[in-house]
Amino acid sequence: MPADLSSELKSALAQRILVLDGAMGTTIRGYELTEPDARGDRFKENHEDLLNNGDILSLTRPDVIADIHKRFYEAGSDICETNTFSGTVLAQSEFFVPDPRKTGGIKNPEFFDKEVIANQMLQDLVWELNVESVKLAKQEADKISNATGRRRYVAGAIGPLTVSLTNVVDPDDTAFRAVTFDQVKDTYAHQIEALLSADCDILMVETIFDALNAKAALVAIKESGTKAPVIISAAVGRGGETMISAQKVEALWNTFAHVDPLAIGLNCSLGPDLMEPFLNDLSKVASSHISCYPNAGLPNPLAPTGFDLLPEHMADYASDFCEKGYLNLIGGCCGNTPEHIAAIAKAVEGKTPRAIPTLS
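Above: the chain sequence. Below: its structure as tokens.
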């Protein structure tokens, strides 16, 4: 199990704004990998394409993932996330378990019990994927920590899943869900146990579009007994709602305040301009630190990274957010490369972090 770093991180956050990393998927694109790269020899005969399964590269192209972590740390990241956004058996089953809907079947709790959760190969693969991903990030964190004398941290990335506990999938049976709460909680517990076994420093429940899925992850964290700090980060739409669960940011905070997270914040979905009013709202109600890692604008398939904003644009927004007192942690989501993070890190250097308010 990792050491309890809460006091150490809180002390750092009181002194300066910490920098998160950027977009793993965006940065992977720059390596121009092919399907054979993603498969390697190990998964050469897999029935589904794996190129869009970025997590699997921790096993088939660890050199690429390690290099990405290295570049983000060198750019100024204090915290890098592991390459485990989809590191659960529920998410990885999309690539390794035949979809029953292709042959007239259905994805339902029985399917997930028999074909996914009871699939020992998939369980073992996902465990290995999480452990190796932590190792890759920690080796780069340790290298730059030793070289610079400033400690860097590894956050275990816990993503939102490809199934939802909130979303209605059958309009003729609105009570039906493809998975149960216990199935979601147990699959998160498996990932969390693997991340902790490899000594990640922080657990990051991120890109929340379904608050009930995130609840399951946080219950699993509590039941694990870990003292690792927790960061919670939601993806919001243009109206400030958390996508499927449609919570506004104040409701988001009220939902998760009892967890006493190291930080709560917003990521993905929007660029910094569209995210700002909701970040402002969250900063007014949350009695924890605030994190923010927006997309580099809205998607644009014609842009080199798939998003319009350049490093200097993200730096300007980061500086402005800090001046307005919104932030304790800043980074970038989709479209943000190591160059973006370097610009952000420079922009927030020496800025005063948000003071945690005393709320009645």
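The chain has 14 helices and eight strands.
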